[in-house]
């Protein structure tokens, strides 16, 4: 993988920028994921989990995984 070779060739002083450029999700992707999570949460709260068996406590997202195909 070319990215792996670039990582090994990157000097320690440039690792932070390498991570920011290649490994961290972009702002647009993060915003899309937050929107999708909010949509799912809203659906579950309104349509399926109300009342006695509902989501009466706070719900948190534990992990979001980036799709490598994009």
Automatic annotation (TrEMBL):
Cited Gene3D superfamilies: Beta Polymerase, domain 2 (3.30.460.10)
Cited InterPro entries: NT_sf (IPR043519)
PANTHER family with a match to the protein in the record: 2'-5'-OLIGOADENYLATE SYNTHASE-LIKE PROTEIN, 2-5 OLIGOADENYLATE SYNTHETASE
Protein's name according to its UniProt entry: Uncharacterized protein
Naturally occurring in which organism (per UniProt): Saguinus oedipus
